[in-house]
Amino acid sequence: MLSGGYSSKKRVNERYKIIGFISSGTYGRVYKAQGKNGQVGEFAIKKFKPDKEGEVQYTGISQSAIREMALCTELSHPNVVHTVEIILEDKCIFIVFEYAEHDLLQIIHHHNQPQRHAIPARTIKSILYQLLQGLVYLHKNWVMHRDLKPANIMVTSAGKVKIGDLGLARLFYKPLHSLFTGDKVVVTIWYRAPELLLGSRHYTPAVDLWAVGCIFAELLSLRPIFKGEEAKMDSKKTVPFQRNQMQKIVEILGMPSKDRWPLLAAMPEFGQLGSLSAGNPRIHRPMGLDQWYHQCLKTNQYPTGPSSATPGSEGLALLSGLLEYDPQKRLTAEQALRHNYFSAHGERPSENCFEGSTIEYPYRRVSQEDNDIRTSSLPGTKRSGLPDDSLIGRPAKRLKEG
């Protein structure tokens, strides 16, 4: 074993039995595995795609893989997915993680089918509490996640919530360039903060808290609160203004103003805001977060009045603090964790989000097709941007658990 959990001696199939294929993404494929030859338990193994040009020439390890390897071997917290080891084999990288039976997207989908029924308020409170604990730890260690969404939040069968997928994460304490220089597009569109949509070159961990607000709203309503359509980059890799996504936000929260957000006029895409209202009367008469929230509680039949069975007025206050236009006024992870929402009715949120619930969630789907981790075709993709020099070549060490 190399320092920090890297292994170049053992082959992945010598240490793990592949059970099946879980999912694929832009940068790799994920498999479920069981340990063997001394490894005990179930694991998720992420196989990264190598960077390629054409079909033959191998050009090295992807930037996303380098980042995730460098970060995940240093992080240690109960609410961040644990990295077991990293195996380098035949120009491929395998990161072995602890296995989680569920993710938040799967849980939300379960409540949508076959008959819509609300996620219990206690479950939501525990999920948020654990998610924010993990985020406090990341931010204290100068790590921005930059891609928080339900599919990237894992949940074990014991109800432990864990932040996963650090492929877009960045250290932010000493960037060599503006963060925009390295990655012009971050955060899945429905969870992207307004400062990112308006082209901010210098942004902060507040982008993660906006995403938490979007996740909170989705747990309540069982659908994304701001479900816009993404405009794609052109052939010159010019980042377009995400007009439709910004419209979805304004239709509920109203138009941002300089009074509400003093630095608004400094945003590169500020001039685009005036064109949002063309042909869209809902921009002039926004729903308002209060109305959206109470309509959501009514639709999903949460009880009324003060009770631990409803998110209540404290839930609205927390949601408002997370979905604040001005990133400097938006709640930090630490502030959110201390919010009255978590202490209302004298109950501390459980560290098991399934505690007190009789709902049985199906386990994550594992396919038996295309489950050969050695031979699966992995056409390469090349990520735009510069390597993260703050990570490359750093000696691996564990950050203190916070």
TrEMBL record:
Coiled-coil annotated spans: none
Enzyme class: transferase
Presence of keyword Transcription: yes
Pfam families: Pkinase
Localization: Nucleus
UniProt keyword list: Activator, ATP-binding, Kinase, Magnesium, Metal-binding, Nucleotide-binding, Nucleus, Repressor, Serine/threonine-protein kinase, Transcription, Transcription regulation, Transferase
Principal location class: nucleus
PROSITE patterns from the UniProt entry: PROTEIN_KINASE_DOM, PROTEIN_KINASE_ST
Record-level GO cellular component terms: mediator complex
Catalyzed reactions per annotation: L-seryl-[protein] + ATP = O-phospho-L-seryl-[protein] + ADP + H(+); [DNA-directed RNA polymerase] + ATP = phospho-[DNA-directed RNA polymerase] + ADP + H(+); L-threonyl-[protein] + ATP = O-phospho-L-threonyl-[protein] + ADP + H(+)
GO terms of molecular function: ATP binding; cyclin-dependent protein serine/threonine kinase activity; metal ion binding; RNA polymerase II CTD heptapeptide repeat kinase activity
Domain Protein kinase: 16-342
Top-level taxon: Eukaryota
Region called Disordered, residue ranges: 365-402
Family matches, as InterPro entries: CDK (IPR050108), Kinase-like_dom_sf (IPR011009), Prot_kinase_dom (IPR000719), Ser/Thr_kinase_AS (IPR008271)
CDD domains: STKc_CDK8_like
Names of required cofactors: Mg(2+)
Transmembrane helix in keyword set: no
Record family assignment: Belongs to the protein kinase superfamily. CMGC Ser/Thr protein kinase family. CDC2/CDKX subfamily.
Oligomeric and partner information: Component of the SRB8-11 complex, a regulatory module of the Mediator complex.
Protein name: Serine/threonine-protein kinase SSN3
